[in-house]
Amino acid sequence: xxxxxxxxxxxxxxxxxxxxxxxxxxxxxxxxxxxxxxxxxxxxxxxxxxxxxxxxxxxxxxxxxxxxxxxxxxxxxxxxxxxxxxxxxxxxxxxxxxxxxxxxxxxxxxxxxxxxxxxxxxxxxxxxxxxxxxxxxxxxxxxxxxxxxxxxxxxxxxxxxxxxxxxxxxxxxxxxxxxxxxxxxxxxxxxxxxxxxxxxxxxxxxxxxxxxxxxxxxxxxxxxxxxxxxxxxxxxxxxxxxxxxxxxxxxxxxxxxxxxxxxxxxxxxxxxxxxxxxxxxxxxxxxxxxxxxxxxxxxxx
Length: 301
Prior knowledge:
single chain, mainly alpha
């Protein structure tokens, strides 16, 4: 037994000299330390504006612009207490308004963009390619080109100071980027599934509802996530169409908290901005895995 063990050990290759590997590892250690230090410094630089906003929300308003450091000389909760009702309407109403518009926009985009994308990707009709080309062209138009005609149209319809200008276009498939995303995704689904459903007597709508739509889950999740983020942070659209305070969304209400001439209310704005970040941070935490999966599946870079 001892002879076998000795023979086996003799047959094994000799251990490589660990000295060169250790020297190579030791030589790369300073480079790794410098790289980690640079990453930490870069992370702190990226987080500094958020940290400064958090600290400033607990400072008296007269000290925010005079003491720009992260360690306040005086701490107060008055910005949160005074800011909640400073516009004569509880800040909860602005959060609910933004949530209502975001949910409506998500429902509208999911419905209209998926139906439109299915028609462009699967149905054969005469103007298919022309309509798809026009859809792609709308992605290249600057948003500001459409502002004046849209405002005139919505004003003629009596939709000013309503949520209709912010919600109705979502049900008319106006977000071409999501249509393009879904068209590309539907084209990856095998057509044999459509043919099998046709043999069972299914029509185009039945195929869309029972076959295509369940397989579009990654594209639908991606559309939901980006619609929520873009709608929640939208400032310009609500600013154009909403002039009554009780109808304000969160971004418009935050801007209204600050007096543009005296800069008073900046502490209140920081405090309410911090509160307004809570829904979107919670949404990101719960949807994080879907965001990564959706981006990886649909090819958004």
